[in-house]
Amino acid sequence: MDRRARRTRRVVAEINVVPYIDVMLVLLVIFMVTAPLLQQGVEVTPPSAASKALPQSDDVPIVVTVDKTGQYAVSGQDAPSGQVPLDTIQAYVLAARKLNPKIPVLVKGDKDASYQFVMGAMVAMQKAGVDKVGLVTDQPRNNSNAPSGGK
Question: What backbone phi and psi angles, to 5 degrees, belong to 29?
């Protein structure tokens, strides 16, 4: 009888993986939802010291100017004149890009302007639907200040 009892009481060596799959799917959904929220920043191509001039275009670019006190102005076709709030500039750029999606948008910051003000202008342009924001720079007067790529 002992042999029969041993044979009928087999040890089940299976793992039920269904709860593990459920947990993994929940974690996957959490990561899929939170990953886009973690990405911050503005996609721009930073200018180099020896940058080339922009190619000639028939489109008059929109230039958002930031002065050293953090005041904003915009220039372009039918642009509002004088110092303008950033949300007005954003609405202007959004309307101009609806008419001409290829119009270039540039940010021109004063050399003494705070980085926060320049980034504010760039973020506003991104919210207005601009994929690439250019930065306006002056060419150095002499090459002694240019960074060397030497060995």
Answer: -65, -40
Q: What is the DSSP string of the chain?
A: -HHHHHHHSPPP-----HHHHHHHHHHHHHHHHHHHHH--S--B-PPPTTPPPPPP-SSPPEEEEE-TTS-EEEESTTPPPSB--HHHHHHHHHHHHHH-TT--EEEEE-TTS-HHHHHHHHHHHHHTT-S-BEE--PPPSSGGGSPP---
How high is the pLDDT of residue 134?
81
How far is the C-alpha of 110 from the C-alpha of 72, rounded, in Å? 11
Mean pLDDT (whole number) for 78-106: 87
State the Cα–Cα distance between residues 27 and 56, nearest whole angstrom.
51
Q: Where does the pLDDT of residue 3 fall: very low under 50, low under 70, confident under 90, or very high at 90 and above?
A: low
